[in-house]
C-alpha cells in the first residue's frame, strides 16, 4: 500500500528555503517509517515487539510514541491499544499523526508560514492559502467518494479521519480484541495532528460513545458516521463553509 | 498570478503499515508562471524505485512507453512545453503494484486538473477488480476535489493507492 503525502506551500517568501524545509520534513517522515514499520524486521518497533530490545534501550522517539499510546489507552478505558489481538506490537494508530505533526513542526521551525500537509488523508494546516481565508478541508463522505460530509475552513489546526471504508476493519477494540464496530468513519479536529489522529482512532474503537468522549480529550470538533449512515457529531467547533451540508 | 504551488508527494510502497516502507519523494514545482516551468526539475529520491515512464503525444493521447526514472523532468518527455492555457492530456507512468500495473492520464486545462482517467488498472483477479473499481474512482475524485475551487485538500481514511497516485504524480511532473 502507498500512503501519499503532499505539502502545499502557497507563495513562499523564500522558495528555496521552503523547498529545503519540505525536503527535511519528508526526511523526518522517512526516518519515522524506518523506525516504526512493522514490515521491516530490522525496525526498532519490530525488534522491540520481538523482545530483542529492553525498554531502557529504546530511542527517545519510540519511548515518546509508546507513552502517547499508553495515555490514549488509559483515557479510552482500554479501547485503544498498540497490541494487536494476536499480540503483535502495532504503533500505526499513533505514529502517522505523530510523524506528520513532527514534519509540520519542521516547516514551522523553518518559518514556512502557510502550508497544508496531507498525510494519507490526515491534514495539518497553517496560515492561509490565499489572503483572507483559511484552508478548506473537505471531509469525505464514507459511503460516497463524490460527496463531502462537510467542508471545514481553518487556518492553524489539524483534521484526522479514521474509517473502515478504505482498508477494511483495521482498527480493533482493545477491550474486546475484536474489530471495532458501530462507526464507518470518525473525523476529529484538534490543535495538532498527534492529538487528532489518535483521537480519531479511539473514536472508531469506542464506537458511538467515542464521539462525546473525544470532546473532553482535546478535540475541537468530532464528526462520525455510524453503520446506518447517520451522522453523529459534536460540531460546535466546526467552522463550516457556506453551502456545506447541515449536520 | 504569481502564486507558486509546491506539491511534494511522498509515495510509500509498503503493505499495510501506517507509514509504508520504502518511498519515493518528488517535488514538483507547478508554477502558474510559465517562465518558471523550465526550471521545475522534479527530483526523485530513494533509488531503486524508478518507474517506467510513459510520455504522450498531447494531441492524440497515444502513449509511448519509455523508460525513465520517476524524476523525469518536463523537458525529457514528450509532453511538449504547453504551459499556457489550453487543454492537454498527459499520460502518467506505468506503476507496478502488487495487484498489477496502474496507469492514468491526467487532463489539464491551463494549470488546473480537469480529469483523471485510469488507462490500466489491475484486473487479473476478481479481488483485484474490486480493489480497482473501488479505489480508482475514489482517488480520481479526490484528485479533482482537492484542487477544485471549493476545497484545498481532503481528509479521509488512509488510501490504499499503490501506484495510482504515483502515476498521477508522474503526469503532473511531465506537465511541469
From TrEMBL, chain B:
Disordered: annotated segments: 37-94
InterPro entries: FMN-bd
All copies of domain FMN-binding, residue ranges: 98-175
Entry's Gene Ontology cellular component terms: membrane
Entry-linked SMART domains: FMN_bind
GO MF entry, a single one: FMN binding
One Pfam family it belongs to: FMN_bind
Protein name: FMN-binding domain-containing protein
Organism: Cellulomonas chitinilytica
